[in-house]
Design brief:
By secondary structure, this protein is of the alpha+beta class. Helices cover about 35% and strands about 25% of the residues.
Length: about 625
């Protein structure tokens, strides 16, 4: 640095006139003033949020020493490059900060030993090679005393005082310079530690929030998107999630800070050459990998790519001993600002568990749905003179097979409708559901009366020694005159069936009550009869409909008749769908399964058989 680079103009004046500024006289007693000032500096150091906040107070304290013409502080990087210098020549003035041009360095030498006081003359080669030289010369300093102190990231600072000509060196100047350097170093250590603690707390908070966000959904696609979205820009500028598929690693989610880059970023992440080669190798490693500089050349984020990055980290997604894929973070920030490996590994583990949970949930949901469908008729029969429809809604988020069932059974002379409910869920309930439905179906195919069929089912359940009970209702229809059907109904502890008449009125169909099935050996049921005419719709349902509960505790059963009446004129498909939706909406979802079976007597169609008296 040349003297003309000093911004306050004093250096240029000294060069032209050849005279240095007069030294500033001391205004305070040496010992007393120093001790009190040092204590004030310590107090300030305990609350400062940046070491530069101490500069004015520190410089004033040193400028008050006899013979001190200038105080300077210069910041160096770990490689020895000088970043800036601050200087002051008068107490009370704000230390002047001067950015230093590239190339000013510590002459290639290793970092100085902290606390080691050095003294040298302004005319020495050592002084001339320093970036503060112009500042010292402009202030009229002829001798320099300095003390280095360590800072974060391997950098350091040098605190120096320039002594004026013709003045003796203040006593204990080196000791006092060391003392204030210790204060600055201690302040810096505290600030660095507090910032590290703040970063750690922020990362812990991010991990906690990440777990909540990623575990908030059991939908696989939503979980994958949450993993990508919530980490940008909190962790990196871009995130890619790849999962192992039979064809190899496949990009399943991506997010980038810049919306305009998203499409190009996603295309880069799906590059087959990268995923099949480098990413596949990295995914098999137990630990994460950081790629910087030349290591990025083999990725779509190298210097020559359209999505260049400064660093890339790849962490395997492992859960329960299985390798699921990888999560890749792409950074446009300095590699030094990449989060620590342990943090990234922790985040990857949480993401892997969330993805695995969602995947297992989806697999189980599909298995349960498949099993549930096998417990229900694949299709309802086509019967002349009637229209049939059914709806089934799974309500338990625990993904256990429910016990609700329904069927429509054509007999030789009648059509029987049945709806039942096995208490509980799970494997035992599923087994009992299959037993109940198939037993009733076999009996009703032979036109057994509803009460008799339910009584025979009770015997079968008692023989099976099940700990669960069953409820059910059976409606048997026999063709009558003028397109009507004679109805026989038996109810075994099940919600009452309803009929939506052609004129829009709603009425009970059959009785209520009846004994539960599978509880007592001595079992008897009564039957009731009715007539269903063209346009009438019979509705059989389970307690998932009637017991759907609103947030204020009300039951849908009290609104069932009105809801059914509002569906007048709709075909059976509209009736079952509308009733199920109304119950679900009323209860804001339901914890119980719902089954609805509806049959409408077709208007203007004469019921018939197959020529042998069979309905079907």
């Amino acid at each position: 640095m040349t003297s003309q680079q000093v911004p306050d103009g004093r250096a240029g004046g000294a060069a032209r006139g050849g005279a240095a500024p007069a030294p500033r006289p001391s205004g305070r007693a040496a010992d007393g003033g120093w001790t009190a000032g040092l204590h004030r500096l310590w107090r300030s150091a305990q609350t400062s949020t940046d070491v530069t906040d101490l500069s004015a107070e520190l410089y004033d304290l040193l400028l008050d020493q006899p013979g001190v013409a200038v105080v300077s502080g210069t910041r160096f990087t770990s490689s020895g490059t000088a970043l800036y210098t601050r200087s002051s020549t008068r107490p009370g003035e704000v230390p002047e900060r001067l950015l230093l041009p590239a190339g000013d360095a510590w002459a290639g030498r290793p970092a100085p030993e902290p606390g080691l006081v050095r003294r040298f003359a302004l005319g020495s080669e050592q002084a001339r090679g320093r970036p503060e030289y112009g500042t010292w010369r402009a202030a009229g300093a002829v001798r320099i005393t300095e003390c280095p102190l360590p800072l974060e990231d391997g950098g350091w600072a040098v605190l120096s005082v320039g002594l004026a000509a013709g003045r003796p060196a203040p006593p204990r100047l080196g000791t006092r310079l060391t003392q204030v350097s210790d204060v600055v170093a201690a302040c810096n250590d505290r600030i660095v530690q507090e910032r590290a603690n703040a970063r750690l707390q922020a990362r812990d908070a991010l991990l906690a929030e990440a777990s909540l966000q990623m575990d908030a959904s059991l939908d696989v696609e939503e979980t994958l998107q949450r993993v990508a979205r919530m980490t940008v820009p909190a962790i990196a500028e871009g995130c890619l999630v790849h999962l192992h598929r039979p064809e190899g690693l496949v990009l399943v989610a991506s997010a980038h800070l810049a919306a305009g880059v998203q499409r190009r970023f996603t295309a880069a992440g799906g590059d087959l050459g990268w995923t099949d080669d480098l990413l596949s190798k990295l995914s098999s490693l137990r630990e994460g990998t950081v790629l910087t500089g030349d290591e990025l050349a083999g990725t779509p984020f190298g210097p020559s790519s359209g999505a260049a990055a400064r660093a890339v980290t790849v962490n395997p997604l492992r859960a329960r001993g299985r390798l699921l894929g990888t999560v890749t973070f792409v950074y446009e920030r300095e590699p030094a600002r990449v989060p620590p490996p342990l943090f990234l590994a922790d985040l990857a583990l949480r993401a892997a568990l969330a993805i695995d949970n969602a995947t297992l949930y989806e697999e189980r949901r599909q298995n349960v749905a498949s099993l549930q469908q096998h417990l229900l008729p694949a299709v309802l029969p086509t019967v002349p003179g009637v229209e049939l429809a059914a709806a089934y809604e799974v309500g338990d988020a625990a993904l256990e097979v429910g016990g609700d069932f329904y069927d429509a059974v054509p007999g030789r002379r009648s059509l029987s409708l049945l709806v039942g409910d096995v208490c509980g869920r799970g494997a035992e309930a599923a087994a009992l559901t299959g037993l109940a439905r198939h037993t009733l179906r076999t009996l009703l195919e032979d036109d057994l009366a509803p009460a008799a069929a339910l009584t025979r089912l009770n015997c079968a359940l008692r023989t099976a020694n099940s700990r669960k009970f069953v409820t059910g209702v059976v409606l048997s229809l026999t063709p009558a005159a003028d397109g009507a059907f004679e109805a026989r109904i038996a109810n075994a502890g099940h919600p009452q069936a309803l009929v939506l008449r052609a004129d829009g009125t709603v009425a009970p169909l059959g009785g209520t009550g009846g004994l539960l099935l599978g509880v007592l050996d001595d079992y008897q049921l009564a039957e009731s009869t009715d007539v269903l005419r063209p346009g009438d719709t019979a509705v059989l349902l389970t307690d998932g409909i009637t017991e759907s509960r609103s947030p204020d505790g009300a039951f849908f059963e009290d609104r069932l008749a009105a809801a059914l009446g509002g569906l007048a004129g709709l075909p059976p498909e509209g009736v079952v769908t509308g009733l199920a939706r109304a119950a679900i909406g009323f209860g804001r979802g339901s914890a119980d399964d719902m089954a609805v079976l509806a049959m409408r007597v077709a208007p203007g169609v004469r019921p018939g058989g197959d020529g042998e008296g069979n309905v079907a």
